[in-house]
Specification:
about 130 residues; about 80% helix
């Protein structure tokens, strides 16, 4: 899971940089995905230490959920955009949707991992 956090964080970092460049380097808010990505990378690195893994990965899931809920308002705008309507700041809308999807997938993978870890601990305790 630490490597997964680092990987998703790196993708969010790149997304933020590409979005920033896509806005002509004028909108600092385009770097928001990069901020979330940097935090996930740092938490992934911290989670490589077995003593810190559980806490770091739980914090990473919280960061990911905040990222999802922060980016989710772009989804209706994206649906408007693909139906042919014009939206303000289409680059931002696309970046929000990508960030929302990435954060949701990461959260789902983490939850599945947490469930598997608990199940494995339970099975080891019954042997």
């Amino acid at each position: 899971m630490p490597n997964l956090a680092i990987g998703f964080g790196a993708v969010l970092l790149v997304l933020g940089i590409v979005s920033y460049l896509g806005t002509g380097s004028v909108s600092l808010t385009a770097l928001i995905p990069s901020a979330f990505g940097l935090v996930l990378v740092l938490l992934g690195v911290a989670a490589r230490n077995p003593a810190r893994r559980k806490l770091a990965m739980h914090i990473a899931v919280i960061v990911s959920l905040v990222g999802f809920f922060g980016a989710a308002p772009g989804i209706p705008k994206f649906l408007q955009m693909i139906s042919g309507e014009s939206v303000a700041r289409p680059t931002a809308v696309i970046a929000q949707v990508i960030m929302a999807i990435l954060c949701l997938v990461f959260t789902g993978l983490c939850v599945r991992s947490f469930i598997d870890a608990r199940r494995n601990r339970t099975l080891e305790g019954t042997r």
